[in-house]
Write a structure and sequence with these properties.
Structural class of chain B: alpha+beta
Shape of chain A: elongated
CATH superfamily of the largest domain in chain B: Cytochrome c oxidase, subunit III, four-helix bundle
Number of strands of chain B: 6
Oligomer: heterodimer
Order of helices and strands of chain A: EEHHHHH
Largest sheet of chain B: 6 strands, antiparallel
Number of helices of chain A: 5
CATH topology of the largest domain in chain B: Four Helix Bundle (Hemerythrin (Met), subunit A)
Shape of chain B: elongated
Helix content of chain B: 40-55%
Helix content of chain A: 55-70%
Number of strands of chain A: 2
Distance between the termini of chain A: 69 Å
CATH class of the largest domain in chain B: Mainly Alpha
CATH architecture of the largest domain in chain B: Up-down Bundle
Radius of gyration of chain A: 21 Å
Largest interface: A-B, 53 and 63 residues
Strand content of chain B: 5-15%
Strand content of chain A: under 5%
């Protein structure tokens, strides 16, 4: 039963001698990432509490810019970091623990691209709608009141 | 015996089932496709959570203030610590699982047995922790008043710590005195068989009002998040007014109807998402146990392949993967 494993992670920066060693290496990496998340979550540095960029004002290009840089404009840097670190963790769990790295390209794309596309679409639709409902509830002439 | 990694005599032929188009066996590929569909279910739940949160973005509970408990450390505010521990346990059991898969590739029955066992233990610790987390959440800690409009009003006072003034929560039990009441819980046996009600709160709104009036240090905190990212604290006068004019129900803990931490949607999503995930972990543990016994009985040894361990491993890692996201979107962001 010769099972081939690709033993390189970080684009070949780290190469492990055996599959077992790679597993422990990935565990160490995931633990460090989780520790960073927890420390940031407890201390919540003030520097990371306000968005790095202010929205662009103006015409079509400004709107386009706001969409492209939406992660930096509308999101607290802290939350952006959390989400990025989560995706990093998800990548290493899928690629090394679930051995996605060793599957054929076609299987990998079938699974990953389908899920990523549909999830991004769903998140975009629902969050957009949620923000819209918030605006409806909170304009000056809103017909709904809940401050009693 | 050879049900999953069978030699059907069709190897090398284009049709007949012996072909492996993506170099993955039928079972493994189907497990991957199941995982994709399950991932979409979970993302549906998490996106719905995001939708509701964006809808009430200025009054959503702050997770750090809700999940502050650690077993055996009573009365200490330790946000995140226990959930971080749970996350680590699950990642750790993922590691033992992948080690079991690796040992399976080397046909090492003893090692597969040990690692499968450790994985099951890890899963059990996680499910147990989640049960404890639920129990703490349901029980609640400070108690609050719900207004006519369904908003939650909490109590606290300004305390000075090393020159820094901080708002600290006060539990209802610390300033409210329960009086003798005529009102008893309505049960099915004492009236119509189809109508009953839940446990009555320890205090009535009138008693809370009295307690608030007699303690001049206590202020009311609303759900609204201010510019500093903290919940708004009302002035003394406003506090009494709010409780007197709008207070309707004393809330202790959380369930699907009321939630002392803030909007009841938060509790609903908490129960639903962590519950659905916990159910996945539970079924994962059950499947792991079945595979564990198969390993001990030597089923896979005789079959000549430990691919079953690999397949259940995929499911187990997926459960871990989902938790990574639940952790981020429920506890961190």
């Amino acid at each position: 039963m010769a099972h081939e494993h690709k033993l390189e992670i970080f684009q070949g920066l780290v190469k492990f001698k055996s599959n077992t060693q790679k597993i422990w290496g990935v565990l160490l990496f995931l633990t460090i990432v989780t520790a960073i998340e927890v420390v940031l979550g407890i201390y919540k540095p003030d520097v990371l509490a306000t968005a790095w960029m202010t929205p662009f004002e103006g015409g079509f290009l400004a709107t386009l810019g706001n969409i492209i840089f939406s992660g930096f404009i509308y999101m607290k840097p802290l939350n952006l970091i959390f989400i990025l670190l989560t995706i990093v963790k998800a990548y290493y769990i899928t690629w090394d623990f679930m051995h996605m790295r060793d599957e054929t390209k076609a299987l990998r794309r079938m699974v990953v691209w389908t899920a990523v596309f549909l999830i991004c679409y769903l998140i975009f639709i629902l969050l957009q709608e949620g923000g819209y409902v918030f605006d409806v509830y909170n304009t000056d002439d809103a017909l709904i009141k809940n401050d009693f | 015996m050879d049900t999953t990694v069978a030699n059907t005599g069709t190897e090398g032929k284009a049709w007949g089932g012996g072909n492996k188009p993506l170099k993955a066996s039928y079972g493994k590929m189907m497990m991957w496709f199941f995982i994709v569909s399950d991932a979409l279910t979970f993302s549906g739940f998490l996106a719905a959570y995001g939708f509701s949160r964006f809808k009430f973005i200025d009054s959503w509970p702050i997770a750090d203030e809700v999940f502050t408990h650690v077993p055996f450390l009573h009365g200490q505010e330790l946000p995140m610590i226990y959930v971080a521990f749970m996350t680590f346990i699950l990642i750790m059991s993922s590691v033992t699982m992948v080690l079991a898969v690796d040992a399976g590739h080397h046909m090492n029955k003893a090692k597969v047995t040990i690692y499968m066992f450790l994985t099951i233990i890890g899963g059990a610790i996680f499910v147990g922790s989640q049960a404890w987390e639920w129990a703490t959440f349901i029980k609640g800690d400070y108690g609050a008043i719900q207004t006519k409009g369904g908003n939650i009003l909490q109590f606290g006072e300004y305390v000075e710590h090393d020159g820094e003034t901080k708002f600290e929560r006060i539990a209802l039990a610390d300033f409210v005195t329960a009086e003798a009441k005529d009102r008893t819980q309505h049960q099915r046996k004492s009236g119509l068989w189809f109508s009953s009600e839940g446990t009555l709160p320890t205090y009535t709104v009138a008693e809370v009002t009295k307690g608030l009036e007699s303690h001049s240090n206590i202020l009311v905190r609303t759900q609204i998040i201010n510019d500093e990212g903290e919940k708004t604290v009302l002035s003394r006068e406003e506090s009494i007014n709010q409780i007197k004019n709008n207070g309707k129900l004393v809330v202790e803990g959380a369930n699907l109807h009321v939630n002392e931490y803030g909007t009841s949607l938060f509790a609903d999503f908490f129960f639903f998402i962590t519950g659905f995930h916990g159910f996945h972990v539970f079924s994962g543990v059950v499947i792991n146990i079945i595979i564990f016994f198969n390993v001990i009985l030597g089923t896979y040894e005789r079959r000549g392949s430990y691919e079953m361990v690999e397949k259940v491993g995929l499911y187990w890692h997926f459960v871990d993967l989902v938790w990574v996201f639940v952790f981020t979107f429920f506890y961190l962001v």
